[in-house]
Amino acid sequence: MAFEPLLTRNINRPESRRIETYLAAGGYQGLRRVLKEFTPEAMVDEVKKSGLRGRGGAGFPAGVKWGFLPKNLDKPRYLCVNADESEPGTFKDRLLIEKDPHMVLEGIIISSYAIQCHTAFFYIRGEFHQGARIFQQAIDEAHAKGYLGRNILGSGFDLDVIVYRGAGAYICGEETALLESLEGKRGLPRLKPPFPAIVGLYGCPTIINNVETLANVTLIGERGAAWFAGIGREKNTGPKLYCLSGHVKRPGVYEEALGFPLMELINERAGGMLRPDRPLKAVVPGGSSMRILPASKCDVLMDFDSLMAAGSMLGSAGVIVMDSSTCIVGALLNLAGFYAHESCGQCTPCREGTGWFVKILTRLEAGQGLPGDPDLLASVAGRVEGNTICPFGEAIAWPVQSYVKEFRAEFEEHAARKGCPSRAAAAS
Amino acid sequence: MPDIQPQTQPQLPEAAPDEVALLIDDRPVVVKKGTTVLQAAEKAGLLIPHYCYHPGLSIAGNCRMCLIEIEKMPKLQIGCATLASQGMVVRTASDRVKNMREGIMEFLLINHPLDCPICDQAGECRLQQYAHDYGAGESRFTEDKVHSPKRVDIGRHVMFDAERCIKCTRCVRFTDEVSKSHELGLFERGDHAIIGTFPDRPLDNPYSGNTVDICPVGALTWKPFRFRTRVWFLKDVASVCAGCARGCNVNLSVFDNRIRRMTPRFNDQVNDWWMCDPGRQSFEPLYDKPRLESAMVRPEGGSATAAPAAVRDALDAAAARLRGLGSGKSAEALAAIVSARLTLEDLHLAATVLRDTIGIRRIAVPVHEEGEDDGLLIRCDKTPNARGAALLGIGAPDAGRVREIAAGIAAGKVRGLVVIGEDPVGDGLLDAATLRKLDALVVIDWWNSPTVAAAHVALPCSGYGEAEGVYVSFQGRAQLSRAAVRPRRELTPAWKLLEGLGHCFGLAAEFRSPAAVFDDLAARVPAFAGLSYRILGDSGALLKES
Amino acid sequence: MSAPVSPATDRAIDALMTLFPHKGSALLPALYLIQDEKGYVSQESMSYVAEKIGLSPVFVAGVVTFYTMFHRRPVGRHHIQVCRTLSCALRGSAAVVEHLKTRLGIEVGGTTPDGRFSLVEVECLGACDMAPMCQINDEERHFLDAGKIDAILETLE
């Protein structure tokens, strides 16, 4: 019953990042097949049929996004690979970039072909120094062997891929902020509409896709939409990389079919709780921006729709596991600090609200809470949610609202200045 | 999810192919395609509150104050950036919107300093206004505020207070899109984001004052006005700037019979929302320069000093001196230097009296040009009425004709000179030695210029902002400049003094008001046919031959 | 104005400006080149690169101050960036920071007087499965504890 690795099939091969290794393992066959058997439009359809949903966090169907591109080719199209991976708890894209860059690159080439783009940008977060070097190496190797450049594999299709390094801003993982950064500016999200598929990079139609999403396109190119759709369940198809971190014995990336049970991920794949005397308290299932699940709600399948039904989201599949030693107020304060540092500052609710959360939570943690604090947190979060330029508003509002809702007693204890009940060795 | 109950909605009116019809708070409104909901609401008579939106700048959408409810859209949408569409149903005053506005106000105020008692913006501050209209009235914020630099000397005329700033970026967009001088930018991010300039590149462009106008709060203030007057004491008078040939529409803000500041008034045919910094300060000479307080007469003979006299007596003295040098057909010995800074009314009487009644043939208008037309608002011609002077037959500014008169005086051919609103001595067009050759130097001006000091007869008139009059801009637009302050001792406009001089030479006409003078010139000069003060109104009229 | 960077960097920035469809994109990589050479981005460098690319200096300054990875002042020879975000915090990042503060004798944000080390806290570096961790210049160090930290410090000159 063990899942046959697909996305992670190469990562343990010696010298897995080299093109020779990749080719020997059957790499670039997907590209060959696509170039031979599919027109660009047909490939877009194929990805639609596969049901592939974005793996960056939003879960938007990739083929549908591609379909938003205008029909005319007046302006050049661009593909921007979102390798900005900065969502706390997430480390799957860097695994692919560093260990199997050609799998990602093949997906980029297939996707570029499908959307008729001839220049793709690989936007990688600045802190991934090694990843940027490795991926540039892969690009150079691909050029040398004719998988990039002019007339790829004799198909008449041209493509260049340019690596562009970010410089330390989580917000640049938001697709329009990524475009701003790529254009050499401050990474401020744009107003939508217009959407990038219509007005994107340099004002041209642009598709932004996550690294893992594009790696899945390689699989679809190899074996087709029908096969892909057979993994997982309807509307939640394909393999998934889950990132396990926090209080588990074996943190790491684990690949399963979409819809794997959360508790099995924790207990089987990740080896269970770090310490037997500290049972599970809560899980953030999809990266820090997603609503927290208390232990009682963790009997859930890890796919888009199941988690949505459970009141959270799959997001970036960054599963952060917290045991009984965790002070939830302290955890929220930690995340509030993250969001306050990373807020771009453009719009009022986020710019002012993120700082306010830090101040309230700092007081609570320091034993200077006020009785109205839990309600205040929820109320302020309610005024941030839905009112911002980009989903960063929800990214801070959801944690605040859900932590307060699910662990109300803990907040009230702090507010009543009874100190921190879970203070015991929280930093062990 | 909002519980929007479909009510019996008013019917949508007909819309042409290039229009859309929508409902805003049950008010039907029809607008051109491409209009935003905020603009459509304005048309329907509804003000959707906003900070960062400005019709003269690109859309930023960052303040979030204009969020409104649109049926069939689950999230609130910003009105400034959402295009009105056919059949759209908009609600700007629902409970959800009210709660959101209260929220935005709350966010804006948590780090805002309680500076109202010392802030120039008080009384015309959007934060104050919206806090009053939409705020909770009570703060829930008990933390330490984010503190930022105050009293930042950000530019020659502008002071910046970073704590008051709400990061709407109107000022940044202005220096990028309008003045194109690119001095301002945003630094850092999050709640430490701060507006600033690059070191050694202060906000120093000729339009910097506009950033103060558009700043919705007291973050950017105009140094000359700083701590000068509380704005609720000011009374605004719609007028026109006389600093150059553009004729920007302005408001003269008056308190206690003194102009305290000048700010632009919107006119999409002239200056949109803007004016230049020199224009803003163009009223200050009224108080900086020494005033000509009364008529001055130098008795006959020798170089006796001039003594104050009644206007009536001074006019008689002037007429006597001029008459003695010939008039009518033998007015060869007379000349006049007349200013393009004068109003049409002044110039009309100058033409009527000096040219038609006294018979002076040599009339010259000095040139006042500085720099270049800057392609935005500033004109190199620093006179507001050169076009008007030309249309009235006085002549356009012409340095050559002034030199001719100067040569004529030097050669002894010109023995009498009437100067109105000009200072040729101070401007270096005539020197004192040349002037001493004159038998009659009659000067009408509002300030005690070097030319006034050299005159045989000097008559005081009102200055800028003290009398009504019309200027014609370089574009051929006739615009009414209004009286905002009363001059001391009932000083009259130049045209009234000229009328008086004309009476000494047999002129019959007498005008009761500047409007009457304008009506007279409109009847006589074809370019102005059909116009009147009422028709000129606040935004002026483009002359037919323009 | 003479460039405050080497001819090689100057030429490399020229090349960047032709690499992208719009030369404005050259700014971030250009700033990296400048920082690689000089260790940080000075006001002079900002003016220089602004003029080169055709941007206003205040725009460049806005970009430099937006991104955490551009230094406006020199940092230590070994710039220690400890991740402070949740997954690392759950696995003891606070103790890592304390240990480094004690060992180096500086506060967070500080640099040792000899310029050898600087210490900052950064947000999630995407290595949560190897927490607690830090990045020293461009190299990651994982599974940190007091002993490991001491051993690492000793290898850094």
Largest sheet, spatial ordering of strands of chain C: 2-1-3-4
Mean pLDDT of chain C: 97
Biggest sheet of chain B, open or closed, and with what strands and sense? 7 strands, mixed
Give the neighbour order of strands across the main sheet of chain B.
Answer: 15-14-20-19-18-16-17
Average residue-wise pLDDT of chain B: 95
Oligomer: heterotrimer
Tell me roughly what share of residues is in helical segments of chain B: 10-25%
Structural class of chain C: alpha+beta
Protein architecture, described:
The complex is a heterotrimer of chains A (428), B (546) and C (157). Chain A is an alpha/beta fold. Chain A has 17 helices and 13 strands. Chain A has a 5-stranded mixed sheet, with helices on one face. In chain A, helix 13 (328-342) packs antiparallel against helix 16. The longest helix of chain A is centred in the C-terminal third of the chain and has 18 residues, at 348-365. The two termini of chain A are 36 Å apart. Chain B has a 7-stranded mixed sheet with strand order 15-14-20-19-18-16-17, sandwiched between helices. In chain B, a hairpin with a 6-residue loop joins strand 3 (67-70) and strand 4 (77-78). Chain B has 16 helices and 23 strands. The radius of gyration of chain B is 28 Å and the shape is elongated. By secondary structure, chain B is of the alpha+beta class. Helices cover 25% and strands 18% of the residues of chain B. Chain C is α+β, with helices and mostly antiparallel strands. Chain C has helices spanning 7-19, 27-38, 43-53, 57-66, 86-90, 93-104, 146-155; strands at 78-83, 117-122, 134-136, 139-141. In chain C, helix 1 runs antiparallel to helix 2 (27-38) and helix 3 packs across helix 4. The longest helix of chain C has 13 residues, at 7-19. Chain C starts with 6 loop residues before the first helix and ends with a helix.
